Amino acid sequence: QRTMNCVELFCKQVDCKPESIALWVPGRSNRATSFSELYRMAGAIQQQIRQKGLTPGTSVLLVDNLGPRLFAAIIAIIASGGIAIIVEPWMPIAKIQKAISLVKPQIFITNLLGKLWGVRIPAIRAIPHSLSIAESIKTKGQSLDLTDLKPHSSAILTFTSGTTAEPKAVLRTHNSLHCQYQTLSRALGLEKFHGSDLCVFANFALANLAAGRTSLLVPQKWSRRFFRSIDDLPANLKPQSFSSGPAFLTEAMKHAKLESLCSVHIGGALTSCDLFESAFRKWPSAHFLHVYGSTEAEPVTVSDARIAVAKSRNAQYFHTTFIGRPVPEVEHQIDNGQLLIRGKHVCPKFGSTTEADTWHAMGDRIETNIETSTDGWWYLGRNQQSKEDFLLEQKIYRFLQSDTSFIHRDQRHLIHLIGEGVKTKKREIVETFPEIRTVTEAKIR
Fold this sequence. Notes:
- It is built from 15 helices and 22 strands.
- By secondary structure, the protein is of the alpha/beta class.
- It has a domain at 386-441: Histidine-containing Protein, Chain: A (2-Layer Sandwich).
- Strands 2-1-10-9-11-12-13-14-15-19-18-17-16 form a 13-stranded mixed beta sheet, sandwiched between helices. It has a six-stranded mixed beta sheet with strand order 6-5-3-4-7-8, sandwiched between helices.
- Helix 2 crosses helix 3 (68-79), helix 8 (174-188) crosses helix 9 and helix 11 packs parallel to helix 12.
- The protein is globular and about 70 Å long.
- It starts with 7 loop residues before the first helix and ends with a strand.
């Protein structure tokens, strides 16, 4: 069986453009890190973790802020055949304990936050070896050494809060990372642009490192100062593209000019037709893509956003529910509207013994024949919500010109509307939608 290491893609870019900027982080220093500097940092961390006993298959818990040190540590771990364990820092302590107890990492690379975790979480105190990430990058280091691995070797295991009592685990193998880069590159045109990419999602920064593009890393809080710092960048760093959800798009439209913008990719949640149309007016020359996928599978479908909005408007939806056709890399089954997919870039199920021929349930209702359309898919809500309720919500959103509300069916199947700004329109709502029994004002996160 062939061997590989997905870090090869990054190393090729280091050879081709060593002094080009790989990562830029906003802040007082606005620090830029070149491909060669990131390579040096990864080599230094690799030397330290090998001294701590890392061998292929060793799990390494990694805690640091989004920035060059974090990406250098990820590169060092997976280049060595280790598994980078990343946990959402805002997860409840009990879920963090469960996640770490499940994988039992042998090495802990951390900043101050991780040290504070150790005070409260027994599973962290049980990790045999620890490293300060700040100290580890100060060592001189050596050239980064790539371990030959089987394609389905684990590379990154990410734990998120999920929607149940158990933390949600997403596993990325060397092969799925490599294939995800190829799929994103083809579907979104990662290599078409010479300018930088504004990165909201960490997996896009990894893809950019493979593509040789500069990533402008977006902090967790999107302040006006951040957007001003982006607009004040020199011409060679001004972003030509970004990929985000509708929340970031909304803030960017309010606070940023982004005068060099050429390509925008929006996914992650339902986007209203109104928001897309406002973005089209703000950046009329930019190409917009409507992307549908999930944490485990990105992307599944890609469509021209202007076409998707026009079709969704024509079908009387508030949101852009037309999602286009699946990318060629995806195999799919639609069983009673429920979507199952598989593909080389789709993350395997954590705990499974093989990556091949495993189907991933998207949890969404997909239809293909709305308005006799045969040229793409339509998203019609999550599986647990009835189609009837999804369509009713769309009608309510169109009436209110807002999606900050939702309907709830009680045990007697009576319908209640809960949301923001509904109290002042209660009379009109009940008159227009007589099936709604109560209207309750509430803050929606």
